[in-house]
TrEMBL record, chain A:
One protein family per Pfam: Molybdopterin
Protein name: Molybdopterin-dependent oxidoreductase
Residue span(s) of domain Molybdopterin dinucleotide-binding: 706-825
Major localization listed first in the record, in broad terms: other
Species per Swiss-Prot/TrEMBL record: Adlercreutzia faecimuris
Compartment list: Cell envelope
Cofactor: [4Fe-4S] cluster
UniProtKB/TrEMBL annotation, chain B:
Name by which UniProt lists this protein: 4Fe-4S dicluster domain-containing protein
Keywords, comma-separated and alphabetical: 4Fe-4S, Iron, Iron-sulfur, Membrane, Metal-binding, Repeat, Transmembrane, Transmembrane helix
Transmembrane annotation, as ranges: 237-259
Location(s) in or outside the cell: Cell envelope
Entry-linked Gene3D superfamilies: 3.30.70.20
Cited SUPFAM superfamilies: 4Fe-4S ferredoxins (SSF54862)
């Protein structure tokens, strides 16, 4: 989230698209209701009428998988009706930047410039800006970048600052604005309605209502979740939302932002910690075999020429110091070479290819920790077959999940499976102390409430036991590559027992001199500005620095910022800056510089986050810009997005794998045969579509568009919630929702079981026949939509089910993230 | 303590059923889960379980109707005790097992006194009290008077995240409901009403019903069966002899309400509840020793006011 949960109350317009927060994030409703009571307009765009839609003012149906058409149409509407926020777009985005003369997009092929058909990838060379002039870092003593040449700092050639060529009149045909306008001019209302399936009147109402947040003093928030991301163009969906919010000047405003509603209590924390295969903790990149082969390569390819990420070397070296401790020295590049290197592209080892590698015998053993892919991965029929090729499988979970019992699935033959399965019971959240981080980036400490059940242990304790055994083996026997194991710093003990508090010191960062973990003496850093690239500081998570900075009481969580419980709110906007700690730097609303105009005057007198008084910045939130340097106030400038080297936000972005602007493509399996917007039909960069296991179905065989989702009564694969009788009683089964029209066509009545199938699998589920799903006309063809919940499986005690809904979902992925396409695929149905 | 009420604003309800689950948890009520069976009780809607029962005091209802500005009206409703001002269940209860909590006006229960006669179920204009067969007692919302007496809100209210449920002085709840209904009407929900201020002597669950009473499963004009008042004539006559009261009222009520009910009798010597016709023990009492029999009889004499934990 760029803002936080409480900030929803400040919105003037709320847009849910690809999320159902009243249902799946119940606490959000508290803050949304407050905005609504104040008079905010509330819009829900969703394939079905959800519980959130019932709370909202406007409901707009949409065919699953067509969000970019919807957002592209909104961009076009905003431009056509001149509803974009001119000063914001001109000064705070790259609208005025001139693109490379080779830049182009061809609607006939649906391809941007730079496509290589053989590898199905793009070269982004032509998506970059034209350069006006260049400048260089001043690393001389006393210069702004003197630190880069200081003793102990790894040698690297600082990047050259390329100042893009700009046209502040926005008239140049090669400027981002003109290209942008041209691109989305194709997304007219009729085309969007034909693709997405809603009626024009509703679409116009949605567009007009949301675009009203483009008034400088108004803010609109977009709430999204997996309905946006689980597509073969999920990352582009997210980009589309960002672009809309930039056009309307909603990023950085209280009540604005692009807000990812995370589906698990700590999933934001997991993301920060490097959940993505290619991301090192705190959004740095792992070494690879191309542009990050050595520490020097890393510094030169990753360090931004301008903006805050000029400091990346400090964060990386501090991280290395935490990984390897005293073994990390300037002479050995701080141990950089001990880190593993990710494959080219960095994403070859994500979940979908993992199973492919099991099938090929490349992966022989598998740690399955805190997830349940035999239930939650796409194409689970394929997953359990692949798992049966493993020699061993370790499942760490609170209950015996489908993954732990994959060999017991109704279609499996246990006698023919040789996999040894170990189930390590782990403690529930309330059975261990530790840190948790919510969608609003708040870090909080949770005390232990009860002892773990029976032999269950906290995950970190299981980790520690494994670590000690593995390290002992390497010590005794050596091995292929012992250095990383033997040199790793692993001293997170209190009284000889593994403990989350020393881990907190490591995450927060500290000065190496003056710190002795064994004696619980730590010289903690109070902000990441204190981190250095010369090996004098250690920090595993630079973005968290400050959350645990009280060196006087390093063992007492209650005396750390993450445990603060202050109710003060001088802003009147629900920032609650003294409640817990929000990364980075306790900043509650990211990009808050953009809440004020270029002269530093707030766009809205009611939503003041930062304000230039003429002499200094008056701030209610931690400024997300350089407000002062060396104690001297820095007068307002246009650098509202200083985490990018341009320091302006990107309407057009060269950093995406699959195109600089979001373009509508059809899902891997689509109910229509036409893409009126381009000749590519589906994404040219779609991943894994060539795997035989994906078994693509056509809309002739499977005419019904399907999607999947959660209900509030259950959580994820149901491992925990299906153990709770009150929740089973509240929602006892998995079901398919379908319209009365489709039910009549198929002879299905309330109370019937329904068989749902496609090439990948078949599931028998209960049914909910409801007008909340409506047939729609897609490109002139009557199209039925259905949706299914996915919380059930054969494992567990209560309400088990022989059928696995994820047997039906396709194992294809987004080219940027490789997130699977759970949200749009094809099926057929019949009365079971 | 001033008269209290729960306020339920359907326009702020997300239908999450947190209240339903919290009610189960606080009151330690079981949830039937058929082992490894494929959901025998699924209703084909989001409304699960389908209705109140001997183990369920609160159910969220989900009613769908086409129409309205969004094309569909999905009315969430709260199906539970409304805590009537003139509570017919308390009036008719021969054993003092259902009574009005003086401090709050909430209609609460004392299961230990319940003889399982189920007159309350017949008398209720909202069809709320349910018989828990295995325990031989009536089950209904107690208003969490135990929590309220200790300064807390009822469990359902505390758990409500969207803020659809509130708890406070009844006057204030009524005023807020009226105000909110007016806002909703202004916002295009023409049928929005406040409900509960005057019904059945004034309810202690006040509701804001976005689509009107019927759409949310509420009776637009709830009425108490006149037989309930009629039974009052009998009460002084039969007096403290509970067993006789039961028999007498059973006959009268069955006649007046048109119900054919099982007839029950209470044996003060053993504490057992008997079926009058078959003489079978339906519920074993705890009055096995002299002291507890005496206590039981005393408890059943003049009706005491107050909650379970005096």
């Amino acid at each position: 989230m760029t803002s936080h949960w409480c900030d929803f109350q400040n919105a003037d317009v709320i847009l849910h698209c690809g999320s159902n927060s009243a249902e799946n994030h119940p606490v959000s409703a508290k803050w949304l209701n407050r905005a609504h009571e104040r008079g905010a307009k509330w819009i829900v765009v969703d394939p079905r009428y959800t519980r959130t839609a019932e709370l909202a003012d406007i409901y707009c149906p949409i065919r699953s998988g067509t969000d970019i058409a919807f957002y592209g149409g909104l961009c076009n509407y905003i431009i056509e009706h001149d509803l974009w926020q001119h000063d914001y777009v001109l000064n705070y985005t790259n609208a005025s930047y001139l693109l490379d003369p080779d830049y182009g997009f061809d609607p006939a092929t649906g391809l941007y410039s730079g496509f290589d058909a053989d590898s199905a990838t793009y070269s982004n060379r032509s998506w970059h800006y034209q350069v006006e002039s260049e400048s260089h870092w001043d690393t001389a003593p006393g210069g702004a970048y003197a630190w880069a040449a200081a003793p102990g700092v790894p040698a690297f050639t600082p990047p050259t600052v390329e100042h893009p060529k700009r046209d502040m009149t926005l008239a140049d045909p090669l400027c981002v604005w003109q290209q942008f306008k041209k691109h989305y001019s194709r997304y007219d209302l009729d085309t969007v309605c034909a693709i997405c399936g809603m009626d024009k009147e509703t679409l116009e109402l949605v567009y007009a209502t949301y675009a009203a947040s483009g008034a400088p003093d108004k803010s609109g928030t977009i709430l999204y979740a997996l309905g946006q991301t689980q597509h073969t163009y999920g990352a582009q969906n997210t980009r589309a939302m960002c672009i809309v919010q930039l056009l309307l000047g909603n990023i950085g405003m209280a009540g604005g932002g692009v807000n990812a509603l995370r589906g698990e209590p700590n999933v934001q924390g997991a993301t920060d910690m490097g959940m993505m295969v290619n991301e090192h903790p705190a959004y740095l990149k792992w070494p690879n075999t191309t542009d990050r082969k050595s520490l020097r390569d890393w510094m030169e390819s990753q360090t931004y020429a301008d903006g805050y990420y000029t400091n990346k070397p400090k964060f990386l070296v501090s991280s290395l110091k935490e990984w390897w401790g005293e073994h990390a020295t300037a002479d050995n590049d701080y141990g950089y070479d001990w880190w593993p290197k990710v494959h080219a592209g960095g994403l070859a080892d994500t979940i979908i290819p993992s199973f492919e590698m099991m099938e090929q015998g490349k992966i022989r053993g598998y740690f399955n920790w805190g997830m349940n892919p035999a239930n939650s991965a796409p194409n689970t029929a394929n997953v359990r077959q692949c798992m049966s090729n493993l020699d061993w499988l370790v499942v760490v979970d609170q209950v015996a999940t489908e993954s732990a019992t994959f060999w017991k699935a109704p279609d499996m033959d246990p006698a023919s499976i040789d996999t040894t399965v170990f189930l390590l019971p782990c403690a529930l959240i309330f059975e261990k102390p530790g840190l948790i981080l919510n969608s609003g980036r708040w870090i909080q400490y949770r005390h232990q409430a009860v002892e773990p059940w029976d032999e269950a242990k906290p995950d970190y304790e299981i980790c520690d036991l494994l670590w000690r055994e593995i390290r002992a083996l390497y010590e005794a026997e050596g091995g292929a590559n012992p250095a990383p194991v033997l040199n790793a710093k692993w001293d997170y003990y209190v009284d000889g027992k593994i403990d989350p508090r020393p881990v907190a010191w490591a995450l927060n960062g500290y000065r190496v001199d003056g710190t002795d973990f064994a004696r619980a003496e730590v010289d903690l850093c109070s902000g990441y500005g204190e981190l250095a690239a010369d090996g004098s500081t250690a920090c595993a998570m630079w973005i968290y620095t400050g959350f645990w900075a009280n060196s006087e009481a390093p063992l007492d969580p209650e005396k750390q910022a993450c445990c603060r419980r202050g109710h003060e709110d001088p802003s009147g906007l629900g920032l609650y800056s003294n409640w817990s700690f929000s990364w980075p730097s306790n900043r509650r609303i990211l990009y808050n510089r953009a809440s004020a105009d270029p002269a530093g005057r707030p766009w809205s007198a009611d939503k003041v986050l930062v304000e230039w008084t003429g002499e200094a910045w008056k701030t209610f939130d931690q400024p997300d810009f350089v407000a002062a340097q060396g104690g001297v106030p820095v007068p307002p400038n246009d650098n509202a997005f200083f985490m990018l080297w341009e320091q302006n936000a990107r309407l057009e972005s060269y950093a995406m794998e699959d195109g600089p602007l979001p373009e509508h493509y059809e899902p891997f399996e689509s109910p229509t045969d036409v893409n009126p917007l381009n000749g590519a039909f589906s994404s040219p960069c779609i991943r894994f579509a060539d795997y035989p296991s994906t078994k693509r179905g056509t809309n002739e065989e499977y005419p019904i568009a399907a999607t999947t989702y959660s209900v509030v009564e259950h959580w994820q694969t149901g491992g925990q919630t299906r153990m709770c009788p009150a929740l089973i009683e509240a929602m006892p089964t998995q079901f398919i929702e379908l319209s009365p029209e489709l039910a009549a066509e198929k002879g299905i009545k309330a109370g019937d079981k329904v068989r749902v199938w496609n090439n990948r699998g078949s599931a028998v589920v209960d049914c909910v026949i409801t007008h909340r799903f409506k047939p729609m006309t897609v490109n002139g063809k009557l199209t039925h939509l259905v949706g299914m919940t996915h919380h059930f499986g054969w494992a567990g005690v209560y309400a088990t089910s022989e059928s696995m809904v994820n047997d039906l979902t396709p194992n294809v992925g987004d080219p940027n993230t490789q997130v699977p396409e759970y949200k749009a695929f094809l099926v057929d149905i019949e009365k079971a | 303590m001033a008269e209290k009420a729960i306020l339920f604003d359907t326009s702020q309800c997300s239908g999450c059923k947190g209240c339903q689950a919290a009610c189960k948890c606080w009151n330690d009520l079981p949830s039937p889960t058929a082992l490894n069976a494929d959901a025998p009780s699924f209703t084909g809607t989001y409304q699960n379980p389908p209705d109140l029962s001997g183990v369920t005091r609160l159910v969220m209802t989900f009613s769908e109707e086409q129409g309205g500005p969004k094309g569909i009206k999905w009315a969430f409703g709260r199906r539970s005790c409304q805590h009537c001002g003139d509570a017919p269940c308390a009036t008719i209860c021969p054993a003092g097992a259902i009574f009005v909590d003086e401090a709050t006006g909430l209609v609460t229960t004392d299961a230990a006194r319940c003889i399982g006669c189920r007159f309350c179920a017949s008398a209720c204009p909202f069809d709320v009290p349910r018989y828990a067969g295995d325990r031989g007692v009536i089950n209904k919302c107690t208003g969490c008077v135990d929590r309220v007496a200790n300064g807390l809100a009822p469990a359902c209210v505390t758990t409500c995240q969207p803020g659809a449920l509130s708890f406070g002085d009844r006057d204030e709840m009524v005023a807020r409901a009226e105000e909110r209904a007016a806002v909703l009407r202004e916002r295009g929900y023409a049928d929005a009403v406040a409900y509960g201020a005057d019904e059945v002597g004034g309810l202690h669950v006040i509701q804001v019903l976005k689509y009107g009473a019927a759409a949310h499963g509420q009776r637009p004009d709830p009425a108490v069966n006149p037989a309930v008042q009629l039974t009052q004539v009998m009460k002084p006559v039969t007096g403290a002899v509970t067993g006789l009261t039961v028999a007498g009222l059973a006959a009268m009520f069955a006649l007046g309400a048109g119900y054919k009910r099982d007839r029950r009798a209470y044996n003060p010597a053993t504490g057992d509840t008997l079926d009058v016709d078959t003489r079978e023990v339906i519920k074993h009492g705890d009055g096995q020793d002299t002291e507890s029999v005496k206590e039981h009889i005393l408890e059943n004499l003049p009706r005491r006011k107050g909650g379970d934990h005096e």
